[in-house]
Amino acid sequence: MKNQTVYALVFACAIIVAGCGNQTQNSNTVVDTVKKDTVVAQKMLEYPIPTPFEITNRLNEAGAGYIFSISNALENADKYETRKQKAMNLGVYGADLSYASTYNRIEETKKYVKVTQQLSDQLGIPSAMDAAAVARIEANISNKDSLYTIISNSFYVSFDYLNRNQQGITSFYILVGGWIEGIYLSSQLAATAKDKTKVIEGIASQKIVLDKIIALSLPYKDDAEVSPLLAELNKVKAIYDKSDGKTLVDADFKIFQKLIESIRTSTVK
């Protein structure tokens, strides 16, 4: 799967709940519509970093189990008040949603759909998909490649909307929240994976992604809310810079894990 827009999993999946149980299209219609949507999506703004779906799929491939309790608690969604809190945790819940969908956990996926829908509505982000797209997601819930394509197309729509409506800082918060949660899940599951080495290699490969995220923060670096977040991301970068981008030695990984957990805790609290 090639790298696609990041933000989007958060927004797209917020619509799934509206279409639960609506499986009206046959497989040929699904495939044809996916191809058509892909063409439309590629005309929109692109964001060249991996989605949380790709990060959590690595966990699945490495034999890490699904642990619902390490995701952000569903009830936390009611306590976020500021736009930054809502946006970052929309990103967090989007990663949790991709984690559940990657493992084909349908009930958990539906629960995270509801909280992402809640935060999306509060942020004024419109639905990126119509009823037909929702039906395609439901029909392809067990087909990761098709699901990835359908959801990724909605990524373009949401990302395009935010950036065309001068909401770049909101999309930045969502991006950071999703990335932090994806890395947090990975670092927490490294110990339980059948192939710990593969998980850590996946985390190490995110070095280049963090560099891009930090570069994207530059227009907002003097913002009072962005500045402390950027300082924390630069601490993570310092650990990454000691590595070769292929793996992290045990001592560095332990420091990395604690730092990511600290940032994540301050994000979801």
Characteristic key phrases:
269 residues; mainly alpha; 65% helix
Strand and helix layout:
Blueprint: H1 8-13, H2 27-41, H3 52-61, H4 83-102, H5 106-123, H6 131-139, H7 144-164, H8 168-189, H9 196-204, H10 207-217, H11 226-240, H12 250-268
Helix pairs in contact: 2-7, 3-4, 3-8, 4-5, 4-8, 8-9, 8-12, 10-11, 11-12
Count the domains.
1
> Which oligomerization state do the chains in this entry correspond to?
single chain
N→C terminal distance: 33 Å
How large is the share of residues in beta strands?
Answer: under 5%
Largest sheet composition: none
Instruction: State the helix count.
Output: 12
Number of strands: 0
Structural class: mainly alpha
- Rg on CA atoms, Å: 17 Å
Instruction: Give the % helix.
Output: 55-70%
Shape: globular
Mean pLDDT: 79
Describe this structure in words.
Helix content is 65%, strand content 0%. With 269 residues, it is mostly helical. It has one domain (8-268). The two termini are 33 Å apart. The model is unreliable at 1-43 (pLDDT under 50).
Brief overview:
The protein is mainly alpha-helical. The chain contains twelve helices and no strands.
